[in-house]
Amino acid sequence: MPRWFNTGGPCNPAEHYMLPPEERLPGVRDLIERKAYFVLCAPRQIGKTTSLLTLAQALTREGRYVAVRVSMDVGAPFPDDPGAAELAMLSEWRGLAASQLPAELQPPGSLR
Q1: What is the Cα–Cα distance from 20 to 22, expressed in whole angstroms?
Q2: Which of 41, 65, 45 is nearest to 55 (CA)?
Q3: Which residues face 4 on adjacent strands?
Q4: Tens digit of pLDDT for each residue in 69-91?
Protein backbone atom coordinates (compact mmCIF):
# COMPACT_ATOMS: atom_id res chain seq x y z
CA MET A 1 0.00 0.00 0.00
CA PRO A 2 1.43 3.43 -0.87
CA ARG A 3 2.14 5.97 1.88
CA TRP A 4 -0.47 8.63 2.61
CA PHE A 5 -0.98 11.77 4.73
CA ASN A 6 -2.36 10.77 8.13
CA THR A 7 -4.19 13.31 10.29
CA GLY A 8 -6.08 10.92 12.53
CA GLY A 9 -3.53 9.60 15.02
CA PRO A 10 0.07 8.54 15.50
CA CYS A 11 2.06 8.28 12.29
CA ASN A 12 4.15 5.36 11.12
CA PRO A 13 6.91 6.30 8.66
CA ALA A 14 6.37 3.04 6.74
CA GLU A 15 2.74 4.00 6.09
CA HIS A 16 2.58 7.79 6.28
CA TYR A 17 4.34 10.82 4.87
CA MET A 18 5.90 12.70 7.78
CA LEU A 19 8.67 15.02 8.89
CA PRO A 20 11.30 13.66 11.31
CA PRO A 21 9.45 13.88 14.65
CA GLU A 22 12.48 14.34 16.95
CA GLU A 23 13.35 17.59 15.16
CA ARG A 24 10.01 18.95 16.41
CA LEU A 25 11.20 18.81 20.03
CA PRO A 26 14.33 20.98 20.10
CA GLY A 27 15.88 21.13 23.53
CA VAL A 28 13.87 18.26 24.99
CA ARG A 29 16.92 16.02 25.31
CA ASP A 30 18.63 18.68 27.43
CA LEU A 31 15.54 18.87 29.67
CA ILE A 32 15.56 15.08 30.07
CA GLU A 33 19.27 15.07 30.92
CA ARG A 34 18.65 17.74 33.57
CA LYS A 35 15.72 15.67 34.93
CA ALA A 36 13.43 18.61 34.26
CA TYR A 37 9.73 18.46 33.53
CA PHE A 38 8.37 19.67 30.23
CA VAL A 39 4.93 20.24 28.83
CA LEU A 40 4.09 19.75 25.19
CA CYS A 41 1.33 22.10 24.07
CA ALA A 42 0.28 22.45 20.45
CA PRO A 43 -2.89 22.52 18.36
CA ARG A 44 -4.68 19.36 17.36
CA GLN A 45 -3.18 17.12 14.68
CA ILE A 46 0.25 18.73 14.76
CA GLY A 47 2.27 15.59 15.66
CA LYS A 48 2.49 15.65 19.47
CA THR A 49 1.70 11.96 19.95
CA THR A 50 3.93 10.83 17.11
CA SER A 51 6.81 12.97 18.39
CA LEU A 52 6.49 11.64 21.94
CA LEU A 53 6.18 8.02 20.79
CA THR A 54 9.30 8.41 18.65
CA LEU A 55 11.17 10.07 21.53
CA ALA A 56 10.18 7.29 23.95
CA GLN A 57 11.27 4.61 21.49
CA ALA A 58 14.62 6.34 20.89
CA LEU A 59 15.32 6.80 24.60
CA THR A 60 14.54 3.15 25.33
CA ARG A 61 16.54 1.90 22.34
CA GLU A 62 19.60 3.92 23.45
CA GLY A 63 19.60 1.99 26.72
CA ARG A 64 19.98 4.74 29.29
CA TYR A 65 16.26 5.24 29.91
CA VAL A 66 13.10 3.20 29.69
CA ALA A 67 10.35 5.42 28.32
CA VAL A 68 6.66 4.93 27.57
CA ARG A 69 4.25 7.58 26.30
CA VAL A 70 1.15 7.62 28.50
CA SER A 71 -1.82 9.98 28.46
CA MET A 72 -3.40 10.81 31.78
CA ASP A 73 -6.70 11.57 30.05
CA VAL A 74 -8.04 8.22 31.29
CA GLY A 75 -8.30 9.77 34.77
CA ALA A 76 -10.54 12.62 33.59
CA PRO A 77 -13.84 10.76 34.12
CA PHE A 78 -13.11 10.66 37.87
CA PRO A 79 -12.84 14.33 38.92
CA ASP A 80 -14.23 13.63 42.39
CA ASP A 81 -12.44 10.33 43.02
CA PRO A 82 -8.64 10.69 42.96
CA GLY A 83 -8.22 7.00 43.87
CA ALA A 84 -10.23 5.85 40.85
CA ALA A 85 -8.36 8.31 38.62
CA GLU A 86 -5.04 6.98 39.90
CA LEU A 87 -6.07 3.36 39.29
CA ALA A 88 -7.21 4.20 35.75
CA MET A 89 -3.91 5.96 34.99
CA LEU A 90 -1.81 3.12 36.46
CA SER A 91 -3.78 0.57 34.47
CA GLU A 92 -3.21 2.61 31.30
CA TRP A 93 0.51 2.85 32.07
CA ARG A 94 0.84 -0.89 32.65
CA GLY A 95 -1.08 -1.73 29.47
CA LEU A 96 1.00 0.62 27.34
CA ALA A 97 4.23 -0.61 28.91
CA ALA A 98 3.20 -4.15 28.00
CA SER A 99 2.62 -3.13 24.38
CA GLN A 100 5.61 -0.77 23.97
CA LEU A 101 8.42 -2.44 25.95
CA PRO A 102 10.25 -5.74 25.69
CA ALA A 103 9.57 -8.25 28.49
CA GLU A 104 12.81 -7.53 30.34
CA LEU A 105 11.87 -3.85 30.74
CA GLN A 106 8.30 -4.40 31.95
CA PRO A 107 7.35 -2.69 35.21
CA PRO A 108 6.14 -4.80 38.14
CA GLY A 109 2.52 -5.84 37.71
CA SER A 110 2.48 -5.33 33.94
CA LEU A 111 -0.21 -7.01 31.89
CA ARG A 112 2.19 -9.20 29.91
Answers
A1: 6
A2: 65
A3: 16
A4: 888 899 999 999 999 999 999 99
